[in-house]
Design the sequence.
C-alpha cells in the first residue's frame, strides 16, 4: 500500500514537471497553428526556425557569450580563489567571502539593474560587450566557490615535497597542484557556461537595443503571444540539455567509480 | 606571502563590480533626478499606499507559492531520500532536468496550456464545460511559480534527509515510537535546515520575478518586479526605480532574517 502511494506520488510529480514540456514538444510537430487540435505532422516550424535570422543571431550570441564568459570567469575566479586561499588575514577573508557570496544571494533583478546603472554611469555602450562583461561578473563567484574547496582539500606538503625534490615552483604547480584542483576548475567552468546560457534577467537589463540572446528573444516573442516556432526551439533546446546532462552525469559517476577503484 | 600581489586585483574587481553597482542603486534612490541633491522623496513615493499594495501582493503570492512548494515537495524529497539506491540517482536526475530547461520556455509552456483556446480548455469542452479564464489570473501566476521553483524546494530537503543518521529512526522505533511519531519527532525536526534553505530558494526568486507575472499574469498584472522593470526600461526613472529596489531589498533582508531566526529556534528546540 505504501509502495503504491509512493509510486503514484512520484508519477504525479513527474507528470506535473514534464507534461507541459512534453506537450510543447508534441505541438512543435503540429501542422496547424492551433494549440489544441492536431492538424497532422509537419517539420515546417523547424524550417521556419532555421530560416529566421533573428533566432540564429540570438543562438550565436548566446553561445559566444557563454563560451567567452565561462573562459574569462574561470581564469579570474581561479586566480582569485588562489589568492583567497593563500594570502589573506582572517578578517580580510571574512569580508572577501561575504562580498563573493553577495551577488549569489542578491536577486537577479537587483544585480541586473545595478550593473546596468554602472555601465551607463561610466558611459559604456550597451551591447555585446556589456553583456559579456555582465555574464563574466556574475559567473566569477560560482567559479571561486567550486575551486576553493578543492584548494582546501589539497595537501600543501605535496607541493613542498616537489620543491624539496628540486622542482621549480612553476613545474611543481603544473605537475602537482593543477591536476589536483582541475576537477574543481572544470566544474566551475561548466557551471559558468550553463548559468550564462540560462540567464535572462541580468542579460535583459545589460543588453543594448537590437542585441538579443536566446532568453531575451524568447521573452519578446512570448510577450507577443504564442507561436509554434518557439515550440520547435524548445524541443531542440530540451534535447541539447538532456544530452549534456546525461553526459555530465556519466562523467560524475565515472569519477566516483574511479575513486572507489 | 609570496603571492600577495594576487589578492589586490580581486579586491579591485569586487569593489568595481559588486560594491560600486550596489552603491549606485542607493545613490540614485536618495538623489533628485539629474542632480546630486539628497532627497527622501523617492523613498517616500515608493512607500506610498499604491506601491505598498503591490509589494504586499508580491509577498503574499511568493509566500503562498513557497508554502505550496513545501507541501508538494516535502513528500517527494522523502521518497527520493528513502528509495532504493539503484533508482535514486536516476530519480534525482529526472527531478533536476526540467530545471535546466530555459526558464522562459518553462513559463511559456504554461501559456499554451492555460490560454482560452488552449489544451486544458479544449479538454474541458469535451465535458461540456464552458471555457474558463485560466491565463492572466492570480492562479496562473501561482502555478507558474510553483512549477518553476518546485525543484529548488525538493533538492535541499532531499540532501538534508540523505545526511540524516538512519540509526536515529531505529532508535526511535526501539523506544516504541510508531512511524508517524518518529517522523514528527525525529525526521521532520532534523530536516528543518533543508526546509528553510528550500523556502529561501523559492521565496527569493518568486518575490522578485517579473517574467512569470508578465507572461502568465498579463500586461496589466503588477508585481514589484514588474514595477521596477518598468521604471528602468520603459519610463526611465532610475531614481524612483532604485528607491523601489531599495525597499524590495529591505523586505528581502527582513524575511531572510525572520527565516534564519526561526531556523535558530528550530535548532534550539532540537537541542532540548
Sequence:
Amino acid at each position: 500500500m505504501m509502495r503504491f502511494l509512493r509510486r503514484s506520488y512520484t508519477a504525479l510529480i513527474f507528470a506535473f514537471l514534464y507534461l507541459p514540456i512534453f506537450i510543447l514538444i508534441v505541438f512543435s510537430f503540429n501542422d496547424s497553428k492551433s494549440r489544441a487540435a492536431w492538424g497532422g505532422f509537419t517539420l515546417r516550424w523547424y524550417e521556419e526556425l532555421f530560416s529566421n535570422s533573428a533566432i540564429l543571431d540570438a543562438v550565436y550570441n548566446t553561445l559566444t557569450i557563454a563560451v567567452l564568459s565561462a573562459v574569462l570567469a574561470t581564469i579570474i575566479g581561479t586566480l582569485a580563489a588562489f589568492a583567497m586561499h593563500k594570502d589573506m588575514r582572517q578578517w580580510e577573508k571574512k569580508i572577501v567571502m561575504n562580498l563573493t557570496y553577495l551577488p549569489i544571494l542578491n536577486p537577479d533583478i537587483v544585480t541586473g539593474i545595478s550593473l546596468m546603472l554602472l555601465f551607463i554611469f561610466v558611459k559604456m555602450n550597451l551591447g555585446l560587450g556589456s553583456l559579456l562583461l555582465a555574464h563574466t561578473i556574475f559567473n566569477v563567484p560560482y567559479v571561486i566557490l567550486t575551486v576553493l574547496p578543492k584548494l582546501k582539500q589539497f595537501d600543501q606538503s605535496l607541493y613542498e615535497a616537489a620543491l624539496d625534490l628540486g622542482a621549480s615552483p612553476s613545474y611543481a604547480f603544473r605537475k602537482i597542484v593543477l591536476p589536483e584542483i582541475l576537477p574543481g576548475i572544470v566544474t566551475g567552468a561548466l557551471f559558468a557556461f550553463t548559468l550564462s546560457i540560462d540567464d535572462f534577467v541580468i542579460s535583459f537589463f545589460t543588453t543594448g537595443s537590437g542585441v538579443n540572446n536566446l532568453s531575451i528573444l524568447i521573452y519578446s516573442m512570448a510577450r507577443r503571444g504564442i507561436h509554434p516556432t518557439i515550440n520547435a526551439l524548445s524541443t531542440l533546446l530540451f534535447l541539447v540539455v538532456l544530452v549534456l546532462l546525461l553526459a555530465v552525469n556519466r562523467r560524475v559517476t565515472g569519477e566516483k567509480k574511479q575513486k572507489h577503484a | 606571502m609570496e603571492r600577495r600581489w594576487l589578492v589586490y586585483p580581486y579586491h579591485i574587481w569586487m569593489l568595481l563590480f559588486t560594491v560600486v553597482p550596489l552603491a549606485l542603486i542607493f545613490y540614485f534612490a536618495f538623489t533628485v533626478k539629474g542632480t546630486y541633491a539628497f532627497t527622501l522623496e523617492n523613498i517616500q513615493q515608493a512607500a506610498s499606499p499604491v506601491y505598498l499594495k503591490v509589494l504586499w501582493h508580491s509577498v503574499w503570492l511568493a509566500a503562498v507559492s513557497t508554502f505550496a512548494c513545501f507541501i508538494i515537495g516535502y513528500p517527494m524529497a522523502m521518497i527520493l531520500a528513502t528509495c532504493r539506491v539503484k533508482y535514486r540517482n536516476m530519480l534525482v536526475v529526472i527531478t533536476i532536468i526540467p530545471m535546466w530547461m530555459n526558464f522562459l520556455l518553462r513559463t511559456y509552456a504554461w501559456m499554451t496550456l492555460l490560454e482560452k483556446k488552449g489544451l486544458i480548455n479544449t479538454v474541458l469542452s469535451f465535458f461540456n464545460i464552458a471555457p474558463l479564464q485560466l491565463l492572466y489570473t492570480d492562479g496562473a501566476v501561482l502555478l507558474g511559480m510553483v512549477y518553476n521553483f518546485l525543484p529548488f524546494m525538493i533538492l535541499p530537503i532531499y540532501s538534508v534527509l540523505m545526511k540524516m543518521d538512519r540509526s536515529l529512526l531505529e532508535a526511535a522505533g526501539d523506544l516504541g515510537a510508531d512511524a508517524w511519531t518518529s517522523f514528527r519527532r525525529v525526521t521532520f525536526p532534523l530536516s528543518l535546515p533543508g526546509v528553510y534553505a528550500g523556502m529561501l530558494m523559492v521565496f527569493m526568486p518568486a518575490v522578485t520575478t517579473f517574467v512569470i507575472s508578465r507572461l502568465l499574469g498579463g500586461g496589466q498584472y503588477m508585481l514589484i518586479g514588474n514595477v521596477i522593470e518598468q521604471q528602468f526600461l520603459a519610463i526611465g526613472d532610475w531614481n524612483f526605480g532604485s528607491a523601489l529596489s531599495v525597499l524590495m531589498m529591505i523586505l528581502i533582508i527582513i524575511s531572510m532574517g525572520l527565516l534564519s531566526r526561526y531556523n535558530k529556534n528550530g535548532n534550539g528546540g532540537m537541542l532540548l
User: Anything to note?
Assistant: The CA atoms of residues 70 and 153 of chain B lie 6 Å apart. Chain B touches chain A through 75 residues (CB under 8 Å). Chain B has one domain: 49-223+244-262. Residues 49-223+244-262 of chain B form a domain with the MetI-like fold fold (CATH 1.10.3720.10).
